[in-house]
Amino acid sequence: MSMAEGPGAWALVLHGGAKEIAPEKEQANRDGCLDALAAGVAVLRSGGSAMDAVEAAIRVLEDDPTFNAGRGSVRNADGEVEMDAAVMDGATLDVGGVAAIRQVRHPVTVARLMLRDTPTLLVADGARRFAQAHGAEFCEAANLEVPSEDAAHDTVGCIALDMRGNLAAGTSTGGLEGCLPGRVGDSPLPGCGLYADNAAGAVAFSGDGESISRSMLAARVMQSLETVPPQDAADAAIARLSRVGGEAGGIVLDHIGRVGWAHNSAHFAVGIATSRDGRPRAYLRKREETAHD
Ligand code: GLY
Description:
The protein is 28% helix and 25% strand. The chain is an alpha+beta fold.
């Protein structure tokens, strides 16, 4: 298990989706995770906040068409791109989320703008109007889409611990290829796709949103962290999916920066960097970590 314990410790873990990754896409997934790690780690190393680091890392993932978020988003049954994103601040338990939002370049930034506001979640035209009112960057729908043959990929997420002991979590997704218009998965739902609480830890999931929501996987992890380390919490959450079926991957940090992650999908693109290890690492399968570390 990677660790970042001690005063001034920081840690950042991100993922590019629980999915099957074709051999020719492996390098792009690793490179994309490392690029996003670099953006998030730069924030943490300079003393920035966990929330700033999460947003910075996810913005890089949203701009990378390798990942199903922002620019790489898949299309719904009407051929439209509708995106979901959320962030959660572990210091205040503030949540900001948007769902089924169209044509914004960085859904995570719109979610961040919602953080100190009520309500915690805005959908569809309401989310879009909020984004417009707050000066979010818009782009043509065509610039958000990838060809459907590249669509076997899922959701991005990031969790971080900053030097002041604050935790944050964020998710962003284009949803499921060919899904019903207006369908919303786990990603913007606290307790399902993400959660952060300075008293316990932070978590973000990727995978089959209906299964993750029905199993309340993020809530399960937070409860587990009261008694077990992050790796055990991640393993236990993924094991719960056997009841409802479905594929998922989850990344977990506890309040002292210990890392856990698990998946039952063929691959799970994950990037990890902590103040203790220094060296940013990207993996596509859990077994790579045990083989190399
Ligand atoms: N995990 C993303 C979704 O199901 O929408």
